[in-house]
Amino acid sequence: MKLAIVALVVAFMLLAGVTLGGAGHGWVAGGIGCFTLAPVCFFAWSNALSRTPSLRAAIATLIIGLGICGAVAIVTIAEGTHYFSAYWQVNRAAGIFVAALAYLNWLLMCVLAILRAKRGLPSGT
């Protein structure tokens, strides 16, 4: 069951990458960021949903994911923020929802894994 959930989340990340990139006419840096965050998502969700999450893996995943997000921000500025703002003007709330879910789900799972690893909480809490 855990693997099915993780696979669905990773599939969403890949779909979000295509959606954000808009076939080269959207926020391309955001789309590429989703593709590079897909493995981070896989490890964050796998670790958070495991019986005993690893604190080291959660922190490493968090650092790598934040590095990717920082790179996406730098590339967004470098390619010109007009693509970024055009994406938001066209897609409005749906675009914000897709981007927020794609860029925050792994972060929330890293935090959950860190909290569970520090407190020793059992699986499913």
Query: What structural category characterises the helix and strand content?
Result: mainly alpha
Task: Give the overall form.
Answer: elongated
For the sheet with most strands, the description reads: none
Count of separate structural domains? 1
Describe the structure.
The chain has 125 residues and is an all-alpha fold. The protein has one domain. Helices cover 85% and strands 0% of the residues. The chain contains 4 helices and no strands. It has helices spanning 2-21, 28-49, 55-79, 81-119. The protein is elongated. The two termini are 16 Å apart.
Describe the structure concisely for a colleague.
This protein has 125 residues and is mostly helical.
Secondary structure elements and their pairing?
Elements: H1 2-21, H2 28-49, H3 55-79, H4 81-119
Helix pairs in contact: 1-2, 1-4, 2-3, 2-4, 3-4
Highlighted features:
0% strand, 125 residues, mainly alpha, single chain
